[in-house]
Design brief:
Blueprint lengths: L2 E4 L7 E5 L1 H20 L11 H6 L8 H29 L14 H12 L2 E5 L1 H21 L15 H23 L1
Helix pairs in contact: 1-3, 3-5, 5-6
Length: 187
């Protein structure tokens, strides 16, 4: 049900509607991206054992490891911080709730209210800065999934284990979310 549209006459403002399960998926993915990025040691990203990090922060100089390391030394911290800030913006616009506000044992009325709320689409409002954070985070999420799926230059996923179909569906869905957002700001 995901859909973005321009929000009235305000240039750059966008409204998005998501099913609760879609919001949950976006929250989970953005949270995992933040964990991945915060765990990265900026000076060692180029030699990281996680190929997704190398894909998110590729070497600036492929044929010169010394120049690549020097460039990374001056840029990686800022790039990692911006990527984390963008993903946190996505979480904030989705209305991330602190875990300590969740009741331990809700009563019947609370359970029914929660079930009714889960069925209702979630509407989010994004300003121009939020839109840019969303676009950048969606790109980072797709790059990470592309690496997990072992998608090569030909665009064909090489991974074929039991998780691959689900990851590919998520990868495609993130692409649709990104495309809808681009169309909404391009009108």
């Amino acid at each position: 049900m995901m859909q973005f549209m321009q929000a009235g006459e305000n240039a750059g403002r966008v409204t998005g509607r998501f099913e609760p399960v879609e919001v949950g998926l976006l929250r989970l993915a953005a949270s995992q991206l933040i964990e991945l990025l915060e765990a990265a040691e900026s000076h060692a990203v180029g030699t990281s054992g996680d190929p997704a990090l190398r894909r998110l922060l590729p070497d600036a100089y492929i044929d010169d490891t010394d120049a690549a390391a020097e460039f990374r030394r001056f840029t990686a911290d800022d790039l990692l911080e911006r990527k984390v800030r963008n993903a946190r913006c996505v979480l904030a616009t989705l209305g991330e709730e602190p875990l300590d506000e969740v009741a331990d044992e809700p009563d019947d009325a609370a359970l029914h209210a929660a079930a009714d709320a889960e069925e209702q689409p979630v509407t989010i409002d994004l300003d121009a800065d939020d839109v840019q954070s969303w676009l950048r985070t969606l790109t980072d999420l797709r790059l990470t999934l592309a690496e997990r799926l072992e998608i090569g230059p030909d665009g064909v996923p090489q991974r074929s284990d039991d998780e691959a179909p689900f990851l590919h569906d998520v990868y495609d869905w993130f692409g649709m979310v990104q495309e809808s957002l681009v169309y909404a700001i391009d009108v």
